[in-house]
Amino acid sequence: MAIEMTVNGRRQRVTAAPETPLLLVLRNDLQLNGPKFGCGLAQCGACIVHLDGDAVPACVTPLSEAAGRSVVTIEGLGGERLHPLQQAFLDEQAAQCGYCTAGIIMKAAAVLRAKPDATEAEMREALAGNLCRCGSHMRVLRAIRRVTG
Description:
By secondary structure, this protein is an alpha+beta fold. It is built from six helices and five strands, in the order ββαββαβαααα. A hairpin with a 2-residue loop joins strand 3 (48-51) and strand 4. The protein starts with a strand and ends with a helix.
């Protein structure tokens, strides 16, 4: 079945079963490797993308949910330039192995879009579902504070 959606500002048409996880289409068909496959159960946050501006786990979101909608991955978050969160993560060296980083940035960006003045406690709560085994949590929070002021 052919499904059309906008991905990172570009209209895309993909042919796949409607129940195919969006993550697989993004990675395998569209070669967007920023969202990672972590757990496949929406429990780690490595696959977070924006669907019409909302942070969703692409590993459990069926392709049919994206039909006619806008999908943004870490590759398209800032457009032609780095998004302020992406730059802050670089400045704070907030990524260690980097596997979880895209998901964390995408979740934080969605939170800040909805609530630009989110407190550190609110951000910690929002990111509780994003697992990082490297222990870069304090640098992640510093990077987010760079953006929120």
